[in-house]
Q: What sequence folds into this?
């Protein structure tokens, strides 16, 4: 991969961040290039969501630099489509699928901007893309978890993002629906750079292009293998990894071991 | 202190107990009109209070407003003006706390709630003279609403409606998903403070109707009922406003018929309707669940 000639879409240098006096992220360095599909795994409380929030400028880093599309997160986040963790949202909220997706039309255009006929067409296209056009008039509370995930992905797509950030997109979604969501992400990855945070190892490993491990510190080498070093450094990651049935090899072979 | 001034005292007036006849009185027509105007603001703002879970904060603003009434009395100023200023200050203060404090924001709001009220009471202690009509701020004085107040209410309705219409998309976005709104560079903080200010102003005019102790009921009950039946924010606001109008009108006539405090009667009518709506919902849910099986 000729990474020197590519321009990073996200550049993180020596970043430290946390809440109040509590440090959650230490010494994070990360370069994300166009077309990447990065899966970040790690234990709960390891800072996965925090890292996404720093990238989007929702949390100010205590130290270090973050650039999104060569700009500050506050400016660069206009190019980010964000799919939040579902538990953070109120699903009793009286709002229809259509209106949720329409929220993506805010897209850094200001709240006074009108939604034009063409914009409505964009919303419709996004709904079709994630295959939930038929649900558009339903209240968000009526939908299943998997359907809702598609709504939030559609909303992120309406912002016409260059980068898609997803926080636990398949949490509490059954494997079959998860697979369809990952297939959708793979399709979107043809044009959009994706960073996905998850503790669901097996799925992550079979769909993403590269894997990183995050437990306060980030272990990411732009590869899809989880190295011994990662395993050593982040005890908890491989536990999950071993516990789940993995569809293909993500652990690099040990020295004394032959390749299968 | 005497009884709330909101009761109907003149016995002669009640002699025939004719509902139509009462409409001849300007004060009663004013009261009905006040009910309509206040219900519109309450329906719209109350809906945002419910979906943003700001009920406690709004209760705090309402009670802290009493501090402003006390200070205004002490300074010989218009109590309503004092209430406006003080409720705006407390709305911004409590709003700031609820947005900045990650934990225990409700504790701090609870403290401000009580302290605001205490300030009002102490200042009243310092103020000389007859203070009986202060009860009307606690329990409402809908039967003594002057025409000037009606104009104030109408203006506020206009302000509320215009603000919500113009900034609607922004308010929906911050209410449903604040983080996403921030990422879209929506001015989340500014919008929240505008909302807090609208809550404060609505509280002050609602205070006229049912008193600051019961303000919270009129702000929350109509949208809560509307929320059971409508899963759309706009419909919820319209339904809540209409319900508020029905409750305040029914409450006023009942309070006249049975010689009761009008504010409390309006609240009890609303509360009863809320109970029925909730019960109806659980019956419906059970029936639906059975049909699914």
A:
């Amino acid at each position: 991969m000729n990474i020197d000639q590519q321009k990073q879409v996200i550049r993180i240098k020596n970043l430290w961040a946390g809440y109040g006096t509590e440090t959650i992220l230490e010494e994070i360095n990360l370069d994300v290039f166009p077309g990447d599909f990065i899966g970040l795994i790690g234990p709960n409380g390891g800072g996965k969501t925090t890292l996404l929030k720093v990238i989007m400028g929702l949390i100010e880093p205590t130290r270090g630099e973050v650039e999104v599309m060569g700009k500050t997160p506050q400016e660069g986040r206009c190019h980010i489509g964000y799919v939040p963790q579902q538990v953070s949202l109120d699903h009793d909220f009286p709002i229809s699928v259509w209106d949720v997706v329409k929220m993506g039309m805010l897209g850094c255009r200001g709240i006074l901007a009108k939604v034009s006929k063409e914009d409505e067409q964009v919303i419709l296209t996004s709904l079709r893309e994630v295959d939930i056009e038929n649900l558009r008039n339903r209240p968000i509370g009526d939908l299943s978890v998997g359907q809702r995930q598609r709504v939030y992905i559609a909303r992120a797509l309406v912002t016409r993002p260059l980068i898609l950030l997803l926080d636990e997109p398949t949490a509490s979604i059954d494997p079959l629906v998860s697979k369809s969501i990952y297939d959708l992400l793979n399709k979107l990855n043809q044009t959009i750079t994706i960073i996905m945070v998850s503790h669901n190892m097996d799925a992550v490993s079979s769909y993403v292009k590269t894997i990183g491990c995050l437990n306060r510190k980030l272990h990411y080498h732009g590869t899809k293998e989880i190295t011994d070093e990662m395993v050593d450094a982040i005890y908890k990651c491989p536990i999950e990894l071993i516990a789940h049935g993995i569809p293909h090899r993500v652990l690099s072979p040990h020295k004394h071991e032959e390749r299968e | 202190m005497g009884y709330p001034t909101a009761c109907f005292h003149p016995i002669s007036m009640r002699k025939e107990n004719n509902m139509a006849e009462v409409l001849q009185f300007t004060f009663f027509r004013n009261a009905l009109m006040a009910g309509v105007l206040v219900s519109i603001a309450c329906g719209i703002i109350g809906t945002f209070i419910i979906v943003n879970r700001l009920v406690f904060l709004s209760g705090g603003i309402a009670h802290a407003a009493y501090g402003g009434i006390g200070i205004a009395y002490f300074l010989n100023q218009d109590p309503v003006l004092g209430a406006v200023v003080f409720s705006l200050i407390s709305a911004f203060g409590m709003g700031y706390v609820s947005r900045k404090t990650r934990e225990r924001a409700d504790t701090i709001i609870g403290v401000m709630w009580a302290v605001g009220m205490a300030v009002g009471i102490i200042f009243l202690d310092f103020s000389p003279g007859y203070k009986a009509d202060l009860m009307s701020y606690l329990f409402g004085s809908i039967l003594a609403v002057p025409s000037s107040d009606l104009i104030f209410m109408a203006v506020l309705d206009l302000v509320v409606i215009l603000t919500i219409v113009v900034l609607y998309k922004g308010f929906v976005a911050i209410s449903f998903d604040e983080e996403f709104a921030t990422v879209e560079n929506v001015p989340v903080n500014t919008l929240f403070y505008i909302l807090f200010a609208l809550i404060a102003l609505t509280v002050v005019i609602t205070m006229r109707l049912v008193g600051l102790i019961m303000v919270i009921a009129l702000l929350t009950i109509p949208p809560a009922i509307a929320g059971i039946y409508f899963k759309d924010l706009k419909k919820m606001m319209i339904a809540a406003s209409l319900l508020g109008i029905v409750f305040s009108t029914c409450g006023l006539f009942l309070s006249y018929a049975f010689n009761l405090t009008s504010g409390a009667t309006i609240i009890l009518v609303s509360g009863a309707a809320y109970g029925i709506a909730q019960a109806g919902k659980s019956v419906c849910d059970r029936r639906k669940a059975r049909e699914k099986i």
The CA atoms of residues 78 and 108 of chain A lie 6 Å apart.
